[in-house]
Amino acid sequence: MSDAAALVARDAATFFRQRGSTPCLSALRHVGGTWIEDADGRRMLDFHGNTVHHIGHAHPRLIAALKEQLETLPFCPRRYTNEQAVLLAEALLSHWPGPPARVLFATGGSDAIEIALKLARVATGRFETVSIEGSYHGDGFAALGLAASAHDARLGPLLPGRRHVTPYWVDADRMIAETRAHLAGGGIAAVVAEPMRSSCHVPPDGLWPEIRRLCTEAGTKLIFDEIPSGLGKTGRFFAFEHFGAVPDAVVLGKALGGGVVPIAAVIADAEMDIAPELALGHYTHEKNPLTCRAALETLRIIADEGLVSRAAVMGDRLAVRVEAATGLRPRGLGLLRVLPLPAPWQGAADAFAEAAWEEGISATAKGSSGFGLSPPLTVCEAEIDLAAAALARAIARR
Predict the structure, then answer these.
(1) 10 and 106 in a common domain
(2) pTM above the 0.70 mark?
(3) Which one of 125, 263, 268, 384 has the lowest number of neighbouring Cβ atoms within 10 Å?
C-alpha cells in the first residue's frame, strides 16, 4: 500500500464518514502556488482549493507574516482588542462602496452568515428569510436551512420562517415575482443570496437592482454571501459590484485567511448597530490576532500584486484557452468558472471529476453536468494551458 493510500485508510477508520470527504481522494504532503502534492509525490494543478487559495497556496509573504505574529501576539482574549484586528476592520471597510458600515469577525462562513441573520432580525424586528432554492450558505442549522426547502428528516426541524424562491438560472422573472410575494407578507427580515452562485450562472441584467428595490420598499435587509466569490475572485473586489446593487450586508470567508487559517467577516450597514446589549458575534476567536494578521496580509497581497484586475484578465484567458482545447466555453466571471460538460458526460460530473483528477487537475463536480474551474488569482498562463490540455484529455476518455 502506498503512503497516500495508507493515510486515506487511517482517515476512513477514525473520522465520522460524510458526503464529500469519505473516502478522501488522497493524502497531501505539500502545497504551493497552484499546485498540490500527495504523499506519494504526485503533483496536481489545484483548480478547486475549496476556494481558499486566492493568493496561491503557502504564499511566502503570508507565511512570514504569520511566523512574526506567532512570536509577538499569538492570541487575544475576546474582551480585548489588538492592532491586527483593528487594522483588518479598517482595511475591509475601505473597500465598502455603500454607506458607513461596521464589521464582525467569525471563524467560518456559516457562523458569519448567522451573525448577519442576527443583525437583520434585530434591525427589522422580524425573523423570516427568503433564499434561493438550491443555494449553499454553510452547515450550521440556520445557514443550512437557507439552502433548500426540504432536508433529510433525520436532521429534525430547522429554523422556522424559511421561504425559498426559484433560482434565477431557472427563471429570473419567477424568482423576482416569488420574492415580491414573500416580501408582501411583511415578515421577512432578510433576503440572503450569492450574487453569483458558485455554480457560476451569471445573473441577468437588472435582477439584483430589482431585488434591491423590493427589499428597500419592504424594509427587508439584503445579505449577499460572497464567501466563495468575494475578494477579487470574479475580477471585482466584491462580486456584487458587477451587478449594480449594494447589499445591506456582505459575508466574506474562505480565502480571507489566505488559505492557511480560518476567518470570516460580516460587513454591514452601520444603521444595524442598534443592539450593543446583545452578543451577536461574541466568539472566542472573534479578534484573534493570528487570523486577523492572515486576513490583513492577504488583503495587502491582493492589492500589491494587482490580483483583482489580474483575475479578470486571467479569467478571460482561461475561458478562451479551455474553449480552444475542448470546444466548450466555461461560464462565470473572472477565475470563478464552470465548464458545462459535453453529451457523453452529461449527468456524470462526478465521473468526469475523477477522469480530470487522473489527468492531473484537481477540481469538483458542479451539479450533475458541470465541472468547477477555480484556480488561484496567481495562476499563470502556462498553468492555464496545462489545465486546458488536461480537460481535453479527460473529455476524450468517454
Answers:
(1) no
(2) yes
(3) 125
- How many Cβ atoms sit within 10 Å of the Cβ of residue 141? 15
Same-domain check for residues 4 and 108: no
- The secondary element (H helix, E strand) that includes residue 87 is helix 83-95
10-residue block means of pLDDT along the chain (398 residues)? Answer: 94 92 92 97 97 98 98 94 98 97 96 97 97 93 88 88 96 98 97 94 97 98 98 98 98 98 98 95 93 98 98 98 97 98 96 97 96 98 98 96
Q: What gap in Å lies between CA 46 and CA 375, rounded to an integer?
A: 6
For 341, how many CA atoms within 13 A lie in the half-sphere containing its CB? 28
Q: What is the number of domains present in the chain?
A: 2
| CA atoms of 16 and 346, how far apart (whole Å) | 31
Q: Are residues 155 and 287 in the same domain?
A: yes
Instruction: Judge if 22 and 75 occupy the same domain.
Output: no
Residue 329 CB-half CA count within 13 A: 5
Residue 163 lies in a domain: yes
Chain position carrying cell 487522473: 358
Domain around 15: 1-28
Which among 304, 328, 360 is the end of a domain? 304
DSSP string, 41-74: S-EEEES-GGG--TT-BT-HHHHHHHHHHHHH--
Final residue of a domain: which of 247, 282, 304?
A: 304
Cβ–Cβ < 8 Å for 158, 146: no
